Amino acid sequence: MTVREMAAKTHQAYQSFLKQGSSAMKDRILGSVAEKLDARRGLLIAENHKDLLAGKEQGLSAALLDRLTLNEARIDGMIRSCREIISLNDPVGRIYDMHVRPAGFRVGKMRVPIGVIGIIYEARPNVTIEAAALCLKSGNAVILRGGTSAYYSNMALVSVLQEALLDNGIDRHLLSYLDSRERSAVDEMLQQDDLIHLIIPRGGESLIRSVAEKSRIPVLKHYKGVCHVYVHKSADPAMARAIILNAKVQRPGVCNAAETLLVDAALAETFLPAALQDLQKAGVEIRACERTRDIYSEKVLAASEEDYYTEFLDLILAVKIVDDIDAAVDHINRYGSAHTDAIVTRDIDAANTFIRNTDSASVIVNASTRLADGGVYGLGAEIGISTDRLHARGPMGLEELTSYKWIVLGEGQIRE
Amino acid sequence: MTVREMAAKTHQAYQSFLKQGSSAMKDRILGSVAEKLDARRGLLIAENHKDLLAGKEQGLSAALLDRLTLNEARIDGMIRSCREIISLNDPVGRIYDMHVRPAGFRVGKMRVPIGVIGIIYEARPNVTIEAAALCLKSGNAVILRGGTSAYYSNMALVSVLQEALLDNGIDRHLLSYLDSRERSAVDEMLQQDDLIHLIIPRGGESLIRSVAEKSRIPVLKHYKGVCHVYVHKSADPAMARAIILNAKVQRPGVCNAAETLLVDAALAETFLPAALQDLQKAGVEIRACERTRDIYSEKVLAASEEDYYTEFLDLILAVKIVDDIDAAVDHINRYGSAHTDAIVTRDIDAANTFIRNTDSASVIVNASTRLADGGVYGLGAEIGISTDRLHARGPMGLEELTSYKWIVLGEGQIRE
User: Fold this and answer.
1) A367–B408 C-beta distance less than 8 A
2) Do B204 and B331 sit in the same domain of this protein?
3) B27 and B176 share a domain?
4) Interchain pair B15, A393: CB under 8 A
5) Lowest CB count within 10 Å: A80, A146, A156, B409, which one?
6) pLDDT tens digit string along A385-413?
């Protein structure tokens, strides 16, 4: 079967599922998936073992091998994800903004699935279940394309998904898997813009750039998270210290960790020494501007221009003193990645200015950048985070996996 | 100035306008535009005359020359558009879905401009003013690229726009114009995905296909409108006749005119002869399936498979008898363009099934497809119609020219 043939089958399955896919049916399928995962733990771990052996032979790093691993705890996690997604409200079919027009007909919008979604991801096989479950609950068909290193694990997980569909009388191509051993297959998939409606790539920046460059299908993505904490001159210093410490060190390897600290010049002398000592005690390397080094220089490296553009994903922090809120916002809009940026302030005008002028997907006042997360925001589950400007920005959950159509309810109205 | 340099200046002007562009300021600029259009009628008509002369020399059709013409009435229309857009609510800055999370911080969304929007269009110079006014009111910067045949008219209109910006202390590059005499400039513009955030092409299908194929920037568009009226067996025959007649003949050259009539077999013998006679009296050529021709054959051509995919934009109608609502929906989802499709029915189950299963941007019950329009739906003004599935579907107004960002208002919350 060619990639185009598979995409056509998935598209066909999407159209059929439009008619069949009630909320109850979708939850039944997700329940079947959870039961089958539980019943097949031995098989899943055995298939995963093949991937792990091959990965070790190929010399994959310990970090990659860890992400690749399926064990009892991770199978528990996938089962829990299915149950959580069952408990979320179905976004599809909700009618809103319905109102009567002067000619007497009613017009409004209804949430509908996006259609066929392609998910391109790397080593973690649990993404196979979580992404498929979110797409299914939102009424979409999905074409999964996982990493080559997880081939046997993903084949076993896709069998679970497709059997759950068949058990409920649904075309198994609603959840398709693109053979990850054929590398040209992804390029071909990205050309099928009449059959696939959205691509969500998850992984490192180079994977995502390559997908975005080749795709003729709309892509929702973020390349990186260069997140800022800006300490305004009116900030509560204790709060500011707690927030930058949490934003940098609580989990430095993720996209909503802070990479740059900006501090108002008026506050710098009193604030910076204590704050930087906190960070250094937590093992953070500081790369700072000259003005910072004039105030506090112990074990502080000089920041390069490039450092301010960098997503360190590590215990490294760039630091800069700015003259005022305008300079802070200009820095963020220029060097940042429009992912998540925070201000710490007690001044309501400064908070409002920052909210208005900072052109990022998440703008945070007096809290850690680490809060930018689908679960923390209350989405229930997250398919990814977008720094794009259309359709969805920031954390994306079930609602962001839907679109809308206009509904007109008339009584014979025509156009005069 | 290269295309990239112009895009960079427009991007810079967008970022500055984020800070300056209050609703009052935006309305003041639009007021200046309206005044200047009124004051410069003579110049605008003289510059337009140059385009008309050149167009005649090049042998443009009478229809194209008509679209190209700026006269007093059309200048009145542009002034009226500015005034209407002033009267619409500013969508930017609206905060919604704000709620308190268990950790005590508030989270919600705020409407924000999309950023820099490229509008690519053809002969009609009044689009220059209407598109610029809609983008400005929604806080966006815009790069306009009109048709070569309207070069002098557009230069004069862009002067009006840019002077209105300068008079109000705004960078004139907020509204830029790409010289339409350099054909390669569009291709270069479509590559600037770090500086331009959305492309809206308006015009014929070939222009739009070419833009969509070349663009690395997201595109909102519709290729064509193959709209259906489906007459369910329970339909009120008089209502159905009035709706299909209006949908086909009231303005056949537009994208929301009906191109195909589908009729339930159970109703066909009583309904079709009278309905087709109505249409023929209005000058409509009928191309029908064999079953239709068995019932009514007078001056009825045989429809080809291709006819059902065709946007005639003319007094031509394809007609097909279908067995039931399922067959009607399958036909629409297969042959249609997902633009606008209507059912005529007195059966609430049929209406609900049609609303749910028809996968189009506008789904209409008991009214004409001609209602699918930004003005008729109450958007106030329309920048275009989308048959894409992401961000915006159907008629697009000011709201659809905005995106959102997440706002988090905390009191020192960190991630545990």
Assistant:
1) yes
2) no
3) yes
4) no
5) A80
6) 999 999 999 999 999 999 999 999 999 99
pLDDT in tens, A344-384: 999 999 999 999 999 999 999 999 999 999 999 999 889 99
Task: Give pLDDT < 70 ranges for chain B.
Answer: none
pLDDT digits (tens, 9 = 90+) for A340-351: 999 999 999 999
Strands (E) across B155-277 are located at: 175-177, 198-201, 227-231, 258-264
- For chain B, the domain total comes to 2
Check which CATH number belongs to the domain holding A277 and give it: 3.40.309.10
Cβ-contact A234, A246 below 8 angstroms: no
B364: contact with A, CB 8 A cutoff? yes
B394 touches chain A (CB under 8 A): yes
Measured CA to CA, the distance from residue B48 to residue B53 in angstroms comes to 9
- A237 with A133, same domain: the answer is no
A333 touches chain B (CB under 8 A): yes
Q: The CATH number of the domain where A63 resides is what?
A: 3.40.605.10
Q: What pairing do the DSSP bridges indicate for beta strands B106-113 and B402-413? A: antiparallel
Question: Are A243 and B388 an interchain contact pair (Cβ–Cβ within 8 Å)?
Answer: no
Closest CA relative to residue B338, chosen from B389, B387, B398: B387
Does the distance separating the beta carbons of B363 and A107 come in below 8 Å? no
Query: Does residue B414 fall inside a structural domain?
Result: no
Q: Is residue A384 part of a domain?
A: no
Query: Is B416 inside any structural domain?
Result: no
Same domain membership, residue A173 and residue A283: no
Residues B81 and B101 in one domain: yes
* B 226-265 residues with CB < 8 A to A: 236, 239, 242-243, 246-247, 250-251
Residue A169, burial from CB neighbour count under 10 angstroms (0-12, 13-18, 19+): exposed
* Residue-range definition of the domain harbouring residue B246: 227-376
The rounded distance, in Å, linking the Cα atoms of A88 and A402 is 14
**Encoded tokens for B277:** 């006679």
User: A279 CA to chain B: closest CA distance, Å?
Assistant: 15
Q: Which of B64, B154, B368, B146 lies closest to B246 in space, CA to CA?
A: B368
In angstroms, the CA B378 to CA B88 distance is 11
**Is B384 part of a structural domain of the chain?**
no
Q: In this complex, is the C-beta atom of A350 within 8 Å of any C-beta atom belonging to chain B?
A: no
pLDDT of residue A20 exceeding 90: no
Determine the residue of chain A that is closest to B354 in CA distance. Answer: A19
Q: Which of A138, A401, A406, A411 to mutate to test the interface with B (most CBs of B within 10 A)?
A: A406
Listed residue (A106, A92, A115, A114) closest to A26, CA to CA = A92
Nearest CA in chain A to B246: A414
- Predicted TM-score of the model (pTM): 0.94
Q: Is A87 found in the same domain as A188?
A: yes
Closest residue in A to B396 (Cα) is A406
ipTM: 0.94
Same domain, B168 and B235: no
Q: How far apart are CA B359 and CA B278, in angstroms?
A: 29
Note whether A141 and A50 are same-domain residues: yes
